[in-house]
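Hi V.,

You were right to ask for the full record rather than a summary. Here it is.
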Amino acid sequence: MRPSRNPVEWQYDKVTFNREFPRGVVTKLLVERAEQGGWELDRVRITPDGTRRVVLRRKIIRAVRTA
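Predicted structure:
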């Protein structure tokens, strides 16, 4: 197998949701981000106080100049 010349580069975005946001609302907001901006879920951390810390990612697509 040949190694890739262009390794995948990712753009990350951190989003924090207060504990007062219900699960359904958080899900709906994340689905909208995924559909509109091409984001995907990288990780979710729920802190002891109930705050959700979400990391989203999407691929960075670089344009390649052709000769």
